[in-house]
Amino acid sequence: MTELGDVPTASDEGDDGLWDHELETPGHTPEPPPPGLNHRLRTLLEWVAVAVGALAVALLIKAFLLQAFYIPTASMEPTLQEDDRVLVNKLSYRFGDVERGDIVVFARPEGAPGDIDDFIKRVIALPGETISFSDGEVFIDGRLLEEDYVDSAPTNNDSRIPGCDNEEAVADSCRVPDDTVFVLGDNRRSSWDSRRFGPIEEGSIVGRAFLKVWPLGDLGFL
To answer: Among this protein's residues, is 121 annotated catalytic?
Structure first.
């Protein structure tokens, strides 16, 4: 026979002991208290900090490192089609010189038509060089320039080129001044370029276009 003394009672364990016994009952999981206001506020502030930080990094990258541009016209066909997207390296010419063949983005030259703020063209002649046009071909210091990126029939320049170092401005020749470069669109029949507005200041160059990022099927380096 079991004696009454063998059965624990509330008086033996006290209220706290009875409560502990109930918490340890198999299958019973106490619900956690709801998060407090301080916890929710801290979480919100953390997300805000992440968003602000990401935005700041994106702005820094755009301002100093890389920027995407879209192609607004057909002036760079066939290399770049209208509405293509390219990525531009803004640090290229802080650590190196502009080279012939580079595709560069630069600020709209004074007097250029339209309301496009940034132009994209290919560097053809460098400071001190003389570029000339004859029979639809381009010559640099008298040597024929091989241009495999041009698939349309080239055309001669039919107007005087401004901003050159020539003693007299002529239609088919330009000596490129110091600190400037001569740029042309790959689509010579449909490009407003240095043949019209003259050589551009190297300081006006935003950066070098090095990667086509859209359309995705044409992703690749330039």
So the answer is: yes
Res 40: pLDDT? 76
This prediction's pTM:
0.73
pLDDT for 163: 92
Catalytic residue among 75, 92, 132, 191: 75
Summarize pLDDT for 175-217 with one digit per residue, the tens: 999 999 999 999 998 899 999 999 999 999 999 999 999 999 9
- Number of Cβ within a 10 Å radius of residue 112: 14
What separation in angstroms does the CA of 67 have from each of 59, 77, 87, 181? 10, 21, 6, 22
Q: Report how far residue 153's alpha carbon sits from residue 151's, in angstroms, rounded to the nearest whole number.
A: 7
Catalytic residue among 90, 121, 132, 191: 121
C-alpha torsion angle, residues 179, 174, 150, 218 (rounded to 10): 20
Q: Are 175 and 187 in contact (CB under 8 A)?
A: no
Q: Look up 159 and say whether it is catalytic.
A: no
How many whole angstroms separate alpha carbon 11 and alpha carbon 15?
8
Contacts of 173 (CB under 8 A, 6+ apart): 130, 131, 132, 133, 161, 164, 166
